[in-house]
Amino acid sequence: MQERHKNRLLYFNEQAVTTEKYVIPFIGQAVTVQADMNILEIGCGEGGNLKPFLDLCCRCTGIDLNTKQIENARAFFAEHPNNDRLTLLAEDIYDMPHKEKYDIIMLRDVIEHIHNQERFMHLLKDFMHSKTIVFFGFPAWQMPFGGHQQICRSRLSKIPFIHLLPMTLYKSLLQKYGEPESVMNELTEIKETGITLERFEKILKTENYKVLSKVYWFIQPNYEVKFGLKKLKVAPLLRSLPYIRDFYTTAGYYLISL
């Protein structure tokens, strides 16, 4: 398993750097991030993506099902000067009793983990007002590591495209290499929920969302802090090839609104 998946503070800092350097400027195409804006991150984990917003004195809310990660987030933000502007919730987004409206909603590397994305995208509107901007960033399912196999404990963590095997063969391979049950469960769930660029855009159209901006990344911005690689967009000709582009798009960035 890669060090960043074991060292949660390292992962937190990587998220913070990429969001500050690339995600907030991308959001800036639609709205300038300012103090006192109301920010929601769904699937926030330890909250690294929220840190740059909190640094700007935004009012930030992070929600995640993983209680341990929320506990880590509270520890990581304990000494932050704007800690009183941060709310962290270990809850299911579907169970939130009061659906406050937010100026910016963040989902970075999250939508590919959600079951029934159509239902979720409909629910999302409950947290939006007429000027809300929503950021999505996620790996195309067919890209080399779209199955998140980098979390494997064995050499499988370095082998691309294995997540595209039929489920039975995929499980057998994971068992053969001694992957623990927790890893197998996570990887098989991602195989069930992984989403293509095409299906995501179809859901947006069905739910009548407006796409304000989108970018297909050949080398996504987060690879700079993770691997020292320079970000690179998919070339115009290659991004015009539906379905095929999913195999080499390491991340899609989207800004949407109502």
Written description of the protein model:
Helix content is 34%, strand content 21%. By secondary structure, the chain is of the alpha/beta class. The protein folds into 2 domains: 3-142 and 194-257, Vaccinia Virus protein VP39 (Rossmann fold, 3-Layer(aba) Sandwich); 149-193, no CATH class. The longest helix is centred in the first third of the chain and has 20 residues, at 8-27. The protein is globular.
Question: Would you spell out the secondary-structure blueprint of this structure?
Answer:
Layout: H1 3-6, H2 8-27, E1 38-42, H3 51-55, E2 59-64, H4 67-76, E3 86-90, E4 102-108, H5 117-123, E5 128-138, H6 167-176, H7 181-193, H8 197-206, E6 210-219, H9 222-227, E7 232-233, H10 236-239, E8 251-257
Parallel strand pairs: 1-2, 1-4, 2-3, 4-5
Antiparallel strand pairs: 5-8, 6-7, 6-8
CATH C-level class of the largest domain is Alpha Beta
Main sheet? 8 strands, mixed
CATH topology of the largest domain: Rossmann fold
CATH hierarchy: architecture of the largest domain: 3-Layer(aba) Sandwich
Please state the CA-atom Rg, rounded to the nearest Å: 18 Å
State the helical fraction.
25-40%
Number of separate domains: 2
What general form does the structure show? globular
What is the H level of CATH, i.e. the homologous superfamily of the largest domain?
Vaccinia Virus protein VP39
Strand order of the largest sheet: 3-2-1-4-5-8-6-7
Would you identify the regions where 5 or more consecutive residues have pLDDT less than 50? none
> Strand share of the residues?
15-25%
| E-strand count | 8
Number of H/I helices: 10
Query: What would the average pLDDT be, to the nearest integer?
Result: 95
Distance between the termini: 39 Å
Derived structural class: alpha/beta
- SSE arrangement, N to C: HHEHEHEEHEHHHEHEHE
